[in-house]
């Protein structure tokens, strides 16, 4: 790495917030902060053309009801509404590929709560494009693309980052939204804990003959869960968790052979299926930053916590970080505090640390409980699912959890 002190200073920019990472959480925070009057700079390593692809590539996100509220609050939801598929029901079953589901299941219906659908499925291309267009339209957001941060320096009254082209950006607060291998966290001396599951997720989308009726399915198999999530039209998003070896093999298959491997697990309840878009695979594990803050630095999204996709809550947890940090910053400014000071950051960490740790442990426990073929555990979990399904109060509790309606909701998520 070049010595930052020897790089030519091409430009020095100033903002209130410096956000490193241009995926989804970073832009969401930029828009939330800009809507409150903060000046924001977003730095992303990818070129903008790569981030704004319009062709469907198979990727999509399950957004909880409260995440929809946040997107509406920052002016993004109207741009994706027409392409968002409501998730009206969730069916959770246990079984083995080729043998069908066990007779016991959990069935969650949004009609049991008053707020509306539990969530929405939105394709990556629509969500990412809406974020980029909204940032382009904001006069308070500066976007720096195809640039990497190589150094960050904290002072008494601000923080400065140095880019690989020699440019520097100054601000009051630095936010790391740069993923599980966050360079922002590493440079701040924040360590991580976690472990892998010897599982990988194979992600794709399929078209099918029969309508899905807005029903999401989570099918637990010994090697890992298969999520079938409704997209607009007769299409569904697939998140198939398999052993690392098996997932690597699946990725080598041509489309026809891959569908032959998928069908025994998928079943025939939606009729004939065909692939649409590309396939992706990524390793699964749990990772938690030991701290969410450092001096004039805060972490959000995967930079702070990465969990198993078993409950589809990864992006929703990141967006709750965004909403909570936006609340904290607005409150700090109203109090006359330094937005990058110790007390506002401590409030953010206290708000989000327990919630995300609880989510991480819950997803870890569920994955270990269900990703096996132990007959004793299988009998216990099937009876547990039947008991939950038979208890209306427990069932509604799970529905509200899936919709993101539990806990201390930030203002942007209150509707």
Secondary structure elements and pairings:
Elements: E1 12-14, E2 17-20, H1 25-35, E3 40-43, H2 48-51, E4 60-64, H3 65-73, H4 77-80, E5 84-87, E6 89-96, E7 100-109, E8 119-123, H5 124-137, E9 141-144, E10 149-154, E11 159-163, E12 168-171, E13 173-176, H6 183-187, E14 192-208, E15 215-221, E16 224-231, E17 235-243, H7 244-252, H8 255-266, E18 273-275, E19 280-289, E20 293-294, E21 297-299, E22 305-306, H9 314-335, H10 342-370, H11 375-390, H12 392-402
Parallel strand pairs: 1-12, 2-3, 2-13, 3-9, 6-15, 13-21
Antiparallel strand pairs: 4-8, 5-8, 6-7, 10-11, 11-12, 14-17, 14-18, 14-19, 15-16, 16-17, 19-22, 20-21
Give structural attributes.
35% helix, globular, 12 helices, D-Amino Acid Oxidase, Chain A, domain 2, 415 residues, alpha/beta, 6-stranded mixed sheet
Second rung of CATH, namely the architecture of the largest domain: 3-Layer(bba) Sandwich
Low-confidence spans: pLDDT under 50, at least 5 residues? Answer: none
By CATH, the superfamily of the largest domain comes out as FAD/NAD(P)-binding domain
Mean pLDDT figure: 91
Kindly estimate the percentage of residues that lie in beta strands according to DSSP: 25-35%
Main structural class = alpha/beta
How many DSSP E strands? 22
Helix content: 25-40%
Distance N terminus to C terminus? 46 Å
Could you say what the CATH topology of the largest domain is called? FAD/NAD(P)-binding domain
Instruction: Quickly count the domains.
Output: 2
CATH class label of the largest domain: Alpha Beta
- Assign an overall shape: globular
Major β-sheet profile = 9 strands, mixed
Radius of gyration: 22 Å
